[in-house]
Amino acid sequence: MKKYTFYIGCNDQETKTQIVSPEKARHIVESIFLDVMDGCTIYDGQGIYKHENGQKVNENTFIVECFDCAEKDVYFVAEYLKKALNQESIAVNVTEINSMFI
Length: 102
Hints:
The two termini are about 15 Å apart. The model has no long low-confidence stretch (mean pLDDT about 95). It is globular, with a radius of gyration of 14 Å. A four-stranded antiparallel beta sheet has the order 2-3-1-4, with helices on one face. The protein has helices spanning about 20-35, 70-85; strands at about 1-10, 40-50, 55-65, 90-95. It is α+β, with helices and mostly antiparallel strands.
């Protein structure tokens, strides 16, 4: 079984600030995962990174974990969220796990 972990930043890629309110961003994330996946777990995170020009940025980030998803759905969700939140990219970590639902 595979676990997919999405790292979804909330800063607009042009302005480097969060334009979409935290409540609306969470609603967008929850809605697409409920529409496409069977379920997920969402964590609030704080991302930090440096731009190519050396500027340091803090960014509200959603960390979303899903299990045993269709790869086409993973790509669909990531592409949808990139557009909806105006992101340059969304990181997705794919891990082979030994897990079961009881």
